[in-house]
């Protein structure tokens, strides 16, 4: 049996996914990273605190055994506090400095994760609109991570939450929102705010839950609870029918998480149930003794105790000795929904064995049609229980609802399918003469068809559940979590795109919304010339992010025939003229450097096809066409003189080039105008004349710090040389005094330049 239940021993899968924390107290912290480097250090410190499947499963088994021994009372001596963490797409991008999903298939679960739940059509309109959300709306504070903390006692929970908040503050991590949740007290224990037992229909997991010896497709001791292949919930494991799913290698042993705060209108629900009961009684389609509890049970599919309407249609059995059988039922003998209505929450979210393509058709098999739609649900109620007499907590205006959390390996095929194709669709089950209507408990407002033999009675219900926040996140394996602490997604050592070639500022994305975008030219792993897109934020930290993956130069016609970009110089008076910017591009052909004139259109990084975005305006020419480059065999880099750009119709540059094996520099000027006449203003000199370049024998490239140009007469530049970089400052004025402001650092500190 131990071999069959190997997943229980996993120290790589986080504990809430398969084992479930199952605690009375829970807090979720929604986090935003302000400093990626500090966030990575925070991840490293957090990783040893993460609860694993083995830890949680072992504790839960001991807790369950002790509870049975004490006739159902919770053991007082067994207590634990668990922590798990998940990351949004933007959170993974912040930690790694690059796009974790550079290409995703349309309409796939990965596309949904990348877009985020606020961009998905999930019926979140009106009061449920993303702009109304408390977290995850994409318009306020972006969520990068979700920290889940669960405990047996409120005191232990509060202690751990305080510790985690302090750790976040030290790492410059903003707590966007804190969501507390807890098991309801007294007779409401185990129920949600409408009053119904929750979490009864959770699936079992092959390899984690023991199979029944008589019916091995079900969980031992839980008749009717189907065992589902673990790959439906954990990426990379066996799936229903072994159907392949497109997921990156780094996602193995992780799970995609949905977190939704669902506000519940408890008085509205019960008031409308009473009103609609009158409609049914007036139509004489329900028994005279039917109560609001009777109709509410049909909207849910279960009575308050969890007893299914399918097995007990007339009354609840709250003291049912066979409560363990509450999942052992189906709808095959009730295809029209005469007993359990087709619009009931239970039937909408899991049609079991009663789903037909058309009325009268043979129902679909649960395996695989239904099994591949299953999700593992966690979460808990939040807010005080409804008490109409209360003037404080518990009153009608008190915020209350369900903190919904679920895990799956495909957001589209599982959670979104259930939400859109089943819950919110008035035409599910399909092809009925009278549309069943949306989910009667949690769906949108609409008209429901209450079916009785030979007659349909229409019910009209408002929406009782409102989305107040939503996030899509990914729960990484412990192995991946350790890699994320180093800013990586794989074990492969980080390769560095050496910026020895050139940077080209994206012309219409400089200082846009506090960021400046650049194309960086280098060589890919296979030796081919590539270009990647990165951005640099304004501010003291100048946070850099890899915005686009490496692309071969051959994808842009303007780079046709270029095997290595040596240097690029903007044409000074032809920047953003009529929506285009021109550049002289220097590259080497058969050992000899040449240059060409290219132009880049505005919008090149935001959707223009390559042939429109960039073009060759003049073909390759020899360097001899430049008077100022007389005697230069190969230009290495240009450095604009900061206070001598477009002055009296001229722009001045220091040109760094190699002469007899040593790098030297000269001062040149380029005039405005069609001819762009150039001249040598001062001849070649050695690098030793630059105080800021002390110790450097060869400069690979200069890059202006975008928000630090001509500030109080000072301009800052990054200087790249070999596998290091430094920051220098150049002062305006005739002497152009220079000095080092930041000493050499390893190039790997640039997250945008690591693969």
Helix content: 10-25%
Identify the quaternary structure here.
Answer: single chain
Biggest sheet strand line-up: 2-3-1-4
Structural class: alpha+beta
Largest sheet: 4 strands, antiparallel
**Beta-strand residue percentage:** 25-35%
Average predicted confidence as pLDDT: 92
Helical region count?
13
Number-wise, the strands total 29
- Distance between the terminal alpha carbons, to the nearest Å? 43 Å
- What does the overall shape look like? elongated
- Uncertain regions: pLDDT < 50 for 5+ in a row? none
Radius of gyration: 32 Å
If you had to describe this structure to a student in words, what would you say it looks like?
- The structure is a single chain.
- The protein is α+β, with helices and mostly antiparallel strands and 755 residues long.
- Helices cover 16% and strands 30% of the residues.
- The protein is built from 13 helices and 29 strands.
- The strands form eight sheets. The protein has a four-stranded antiparallel β-sheet with strand order 2-3-1-4. Strands 9-10-8-13 form a four-stranded antiparallel β-sheet.
- A hairpin with a 5-residue loop joins strand 15 and strand 16.
């Amino acid at each position: 049996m131990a071999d069959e239940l190997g997943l229980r021993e996993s120290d790589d899968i986080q504990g809430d996914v398969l084992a479930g924390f199952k605690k009375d107290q829970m807090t979720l912290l929604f986090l935003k990273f302000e400093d990626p480097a500090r966030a990575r250090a925070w991840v490293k410190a957090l990783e040893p605190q993460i609860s694993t499947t083995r830890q949680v499963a072992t504790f839960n088994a001991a807790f369950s055994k002790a509870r049975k021994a004490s006739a159902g009372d919770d053991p007082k001596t067994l207590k634990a506090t668990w922590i798990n963490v998940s990351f949004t797409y933007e959170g993974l991008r912040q930690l790694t400095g690059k796009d974790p999903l550079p290409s995703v298939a349309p309409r796939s679960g990965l596309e949904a994760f990348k877009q985020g739940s606020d961009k998905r059509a999930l019926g979140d309109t009106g009061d449920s609109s993303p702009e109304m959300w408390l977290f995850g709306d994409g318009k306020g504070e972006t969520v990068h991570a979700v920290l889940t903390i669960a405990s047996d006692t409120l005191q232990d929970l509060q202690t751990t939450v305080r510790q985690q908040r302090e750790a976040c503050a030290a790492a410059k991590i903003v707590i966007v929102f804190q969501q507390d949740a807890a098991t309801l007290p007294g007779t409401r224990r185990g129920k949600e705010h409408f009053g119904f037992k929750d979490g009864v229909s959770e699936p079992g997991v092959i390899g984690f839950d023991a199979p029944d010896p008589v019916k091995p497709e079900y969980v031992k001791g839980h008749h009717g609870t189907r065992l589902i292949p673990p790959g439906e919930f954990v990426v990379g494991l066996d799936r229903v029918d072994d159907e392949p799913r497109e997921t990156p290698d780094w996602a193995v042993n992780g799970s995609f998480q949905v977190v939704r705060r669902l506000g519940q209108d408890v008085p509205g629900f019960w008031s409308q149930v009473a009103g609609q009961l009158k409609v049914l009684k007036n139509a004489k389609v329900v028994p005279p003794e039917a109560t609001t509890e009777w109709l509410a049970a049909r909207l849910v599919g279960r009575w308050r105790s969890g007893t299914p309407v399918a097995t007990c249609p007339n009354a609840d059995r709250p003291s049912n000795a066979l409560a363990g059988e509450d999942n052992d039922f189906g709808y095959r003998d009730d295809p029209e929904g005469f007993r359990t209505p087709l619009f009931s929450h239970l039937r909408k979210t899991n049609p079991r064995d009663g789903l037909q393509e058309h009325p009268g058709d043979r129902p679909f098999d649960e395996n695989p049609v239904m099994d591949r739609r299953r999700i593992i649900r966690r979460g808990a109620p939040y807010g005080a229980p409804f008490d109409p007499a209360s003037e404080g907590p518990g009153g009608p205006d008190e915020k209350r609802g369900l903190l919904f959390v679920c895990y799956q390996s495909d957001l589209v095929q599982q959670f979104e399918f259930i939400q859109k194709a089943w819950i919110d669709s008035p035409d599910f089950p399909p092809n009925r003469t009278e549309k069943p209507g949306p989910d009667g408990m949690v769906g949108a407002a609409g008209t429901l068809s209450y079916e009785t033999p030979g007659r349909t009675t229409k019910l009209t219900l408002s929406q009782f559940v409102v989305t107040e926040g939503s996030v899509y996140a990914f729960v990484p394996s412990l192995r991946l979590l350790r890699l994320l602490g180093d800013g990586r997604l794989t074990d492969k050592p980080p390769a560095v795109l050496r910026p020895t070639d050139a940077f080209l500022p994206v012309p219409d994305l400089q200082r846009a919304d506090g960021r400046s975008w650049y194309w960086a030219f280098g060589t890919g792993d296979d030796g081919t010339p590539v270009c990647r897109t990165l951005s640099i934020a304004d501010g003291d930290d100048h946070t850099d992010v890899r915005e686009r993956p490496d692309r071969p130069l051959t994808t842009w016609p303007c780079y046709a025939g270029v095997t290595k970009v040596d240097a690029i110089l903007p044409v000074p008076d032809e920047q953003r003229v009529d929506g285009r910017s021109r550049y002289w591009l220097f590259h080497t052909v058969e050992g000899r450097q040449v240059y060409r004139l290219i132009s880049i259109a505005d919008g090149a990084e935001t959707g223009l096809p390559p042939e429109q975005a960039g073009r060759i305006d003049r073909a390759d020419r020899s360097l001899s066409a430049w008077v100022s480059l007389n005697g230069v065999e190969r230009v290495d880099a240009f450095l604009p003189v900061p206070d001598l750009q477009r002055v009296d119709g001229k722009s001045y540059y220091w040109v760094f080039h190699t002469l007899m094996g040593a790098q030297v520099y000269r001062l040149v000027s380029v005039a405005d105008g069609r001819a762009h006449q150039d001249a040598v203003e001062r001849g070649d000199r050695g690098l030793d004349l630059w105080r800021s370049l002390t110790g450097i024998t060869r400069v690979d490239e200069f890059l202006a710090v975008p928000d630090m140009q001509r500030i109080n007469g000072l301009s800052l530049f990054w200087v790249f040389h070999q596998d290091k970089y430094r920051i220098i400052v150049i002062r305006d004025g005739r002497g152009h005094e220079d000095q080092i402001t930041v000493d050499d650092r390893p190039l790997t500190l640039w997250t945008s330049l690591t693969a």
